[in-house]
Amino acid sequence: MYADVDHRARSLHWERGFAAWLERANESVRGPLGVTFELESARAWDRRGSDGPLEPVLGALESVDAGEDVDLVVGLVAPPVSFSGAQHELGFARVLGRHCVLRGLGGELPAAARQRLEVAVLLHEWAHTLGALHVRDGRGWMSPKYDADQTGFDARTLALLGTGLRHLPAARVALESQKAWARELRGAVEAMTGPAWEGPERDFLLQWTERVRASGVVLGPEGTPRALTPLERQRLAEVIALEKSGRPEVAAEALEPLAVRHPQDERVQLLACYLAVHLTPGLDATRERCERAIARFPDEPSLRMNVALLHLHAGRFDEARDSLVAARRNLEARAVVEPAQWADLAGLFLRAHCVTWAEETAARAPGLAASSVVMEQAARLRRQVALPPARPEAGTFPLPSLEPAREGDLVRAVSDVEALLHAGSSGPARERIAALSQDFPVSPSVALLQCELHLFQGRLGSARTACERVLAFREDAVQAHLLLGVLATNTRAHARARKHLERVIALEPSRTEAWHLLAREYRGTRQLRTLQARYREQFARDLP
């Protein structure tokens, strides 16, 4: 069950309310049909606006959840402004489908009357999904117009529903089961003669059963062939199970024939791209496969995220960033997005060093562990490279702005220059820093690199000035504190060294070099024993 924004706003305990609704329906169908409704899940539906016809709302529900793992998908929307008594104003379902949309009912109705109406509407629409027709005698639940005296299904409708219950759910996926259902359904419909049964629904069902009789593949409710045969659908399910069980190589091999035969099947092509990306990310064929899938299914965000993974694997960070931005647009265009998708996208943005976009995307999935990890890692990266915060706190020193699209370039440049310095290549490092100071003027990150360069060259005064400039912009710039601690240790400025090294440990307790330097500073003092105890608590071992 999916409850939209408007329904949830009007019903405080909407999950419990629908569960009670189902229980009342069970009292009406358990006896005559042996049916019990069980609620698989109650989910929030990110859509609003319930005025107008319900058929487009049903289409939106079908796009959110295909319902292949349940018997029925129900969408709940807000009550109508006014109610004429027509059933289609309170609910809508496709004949032979597996989805229905129901309007909640307003509190102006007496409780008993509202509950009777809720049961009638739910069972009316559910019966349509099993092939039940409208009955125009006004006495049962399949009447096109609701009446308070309606209490059940007529005998012929019960027989038709029993036919569906005997053959479903197998008749939706297995050809022989569908043909057996169609034969029985046709007999039940042909027996429904007279003015009460005549109409386009009866004609549609007779046409559908005839198509099933002549078809060599399973048909959907619309009477057209499914993209996959029943055997192929079973094979796809086996492939998914193989992947989930940790056997992606076997899954990819089993999927390949389906991927070749069904280039227009979205589920097959999404899975084929996903498996190829995780098994053979370095092959051109993998990239080509995923890009062909994007051309066929441009609105699918997971494809663009997989292509971004390929770019990241190959070091093509700009292309990865562009793919992730496109994936974000895809997700933003959807009415309902699983929070885990936002968290996955946030993690990829962070891998591309797009820190602000990673934080903004993770914020769309609050409460998820993956989102919290992204937030923590993004904050740590900002401290490490002295990257300005996306939104400075009120009252803090104003920081130079940096477009989110350029953050990745700067973060990677800092890493590259530090690698040059650690390798002893001060000349190339100096050239890169000079170029960065032109591209990113007044950047704390560039000032941090200048500090490291000056310290490497033994220009201690210039190093101290550069690092202090970094801290003026970002007091929590952990690398600047460490460099100033090293500098102070080398110049025997013990108080200053201890201050900066303690700040490093407070910001990043895992920076063991700061602990070791601080131990040297505290040698011969009572603080050393305290530091050793803190180290033991942090790392569960003794301070070397």
TrEMBL record:
It comes from the Bacteria. It holds the Pfam family TPR_16. Gene3D superfamilies: Tetratricopeptide repeat domain. InterPro entries: TPR-like_helical_dom_sf. This is Tetratricopeptide repeat protein.
